Amino acid sequence: MTQHPFLSAEKAAALAERFGTPLYVYDEKTLRANAAACLAFPNAFGLTVRFAIKACPNAAVLRLFLSLGLHFDASSVYEVRRAMLAGVPAEKISLSTQELPEDFAELLRGGVKFNACSLDQLERFGRAFPGARVGVRFNPGMGSGGTGKTNVGGPDSSFGIWHEYAGTVKEILEKHGLELERIHTHIGSGSDPAVWQKAALRSLGMVRLFPTARTLDFGGGYKVARVDGEKTTDLQDCGAPVRDAIAQLAEETGRRLHFEIEPGTYLVANAGAILARVQDVVDTGASGRKFIKLDSGMTDILRPSLYGAQHPIFLAKKPGRAVPAETENYVVVGHCCESGDLVSCAPGEPETLAERALPRAEIGDFCIVGGAGAYCAAMSAKNYNSFPESAEAMLCENGEMRLIRRRQTLEQIVQNEIA
Ligand SMILES: *Cc1c(COP(=O)(O)O)cnc(C)c1O
């Protein structure tokens, strides 16, 4: 692929002209298509799709998903409040968090749903809301993720209540008269579909232990292919055996379980790109390397430096420049004073340089980093080297280019400092 799927060289130039670079660009059409695919997830007795806010929390994205019928998964009380600020009704938000602050009760009183993610959280919820309905996040005893950093299940993971503590969960429920209405698992981002299915089927075992459970929430983690050789999870294949198992459970017990899924990556990863400018091209001699330096980097996209994540990189010539026939092998680096600010690293190896074949680059050309809709604007080394937080734009279905977040100013970077 020589051209980015939704960001042509012409669009890139037009966006850069209007909003400057670096710029996050989201494509409304792709966001809508991804939402439709998730809403078609196999289910026997109804489905709620929750967008995992942490993947891409911009209000424009949240509002679009809200309008399409999605609900939301928040991983902190701040995300809950941010979604509400964007206009999401409290009852469409579910909170599963590693840190439950002192004042959580106030927030939940407004109608936000809650999954207790530890025994202590369940106990505190019970004290605040005796007799209420609650969800519980279990660690099903297995995990899977694209990398160790994104695996959040199994004995080495602190996420959720260890499955063997179901008895203690029951005691706490009884003590406070709580009713467990929802069982939740989320085993990792970029999980292997086979492991995901195994974990999902194991949650069905938990459902049998808790006769009041009416909803099974399988979390997120559905893989997407950003570069050649990676594979996007087929949601139909992935969900079908679990749907069948739930239909079977209904036949045996009469319990008709509602499904929830919480995709983050799947909904947004390939609907976003970073539009950057080639601000320098250098080399280290005849036996060395050629480098493209972007006006972006770990301040906008941390995934390569953190996980050795692979993102496709496209070169778009500056308007008026011909596309050269020949390619060169380039190492693509960011603008931070840190050799770890490497965009083209080797797969899974953040510190190992890898080269990408790109049309010969000149200063002023554009680089488009694809697959940057999830965990990029949301998770960056923001303000490192005092680079401002980048702007975000939406390519609307009607062809309009809409700014959805302004570039940060220097005044905003220092506004909380006390001299
Ligand atoms: C992060 C997270 C998700 C989304 O994970 P993806 O890999 O982006 O799909 C869903 N549910 C919970 C509880 C999470 O923490």
Structure description:
The active site is at 337 (proton donor). Residues 39-269 form the Orn/DAP/Arg decarboxylase 2 N-terminal domain. It is elongated and about 70 Å long. α8 (193-209) links the parallel β8 (179-184) and β9. α6 runs parallel beside α7 (166-175) and α8 packs parallel to α9. Helices cover 28% and strands 23% of the residues. It has 419 residues and is of the alpha/beta class. The longest helix is centred in the middle third of the chain and has 19 residues, at 235-253. The protein binds pyridoxal-5'-phosphate.
Query: Considering DSSP H and I runs of 4 or more, what fraction of the residues is helical?
Result: 25-40%
What percentage of the residues does DSSP assign to strands (E)?
Answer: 15-25%
Q: What compounds are bound to the protein?
A: pyridoxal-5'-phosphate
Number of strands: 20
Quick overview:
This protein is of the alpha/beta class.
List the helices and strands and how they pair.
Blueprint: H1 9-19, E1 23-27, H2 28-39, E2 47-52, H3 59-67, E3 71-74, H4 77-85, E4 93-95, H5 104-109, E5 113-116, H6 119-128, E6 133-139, E7 161-162, H7 166-175, E8 179-184, H8 193-209, E9 215-217, H9 235-253, E10 258-261, H10 265-268, E11 272-283, E12 290-294, H11 303-307, E13 313-316, E14 327-333, E15 345-346, E16 349-353, E17 356-359, E18 366-369, E19 391-395, E20 401-405, H12 410-414
Parallel strand pairs: 1-19, 2-3, 2-10, 3-4, 4-5, 5-6, 6-7, 6-8, 8-9, 9-10, 12-14
Antiparallel strand pairs: 1-11, 11-12, 11-18, 13-18, 14-17, 15-16, 19-20
Helix pairs in contact: 6-7, 8-9
Bound molecules: pyridoxal-5'-phosphate.
Residues 52, 54-55, 73, 75, 96, 186, 189, 219-222, 262-266, 374 line the site of pyridoxal-5'-phosphate (PLP).
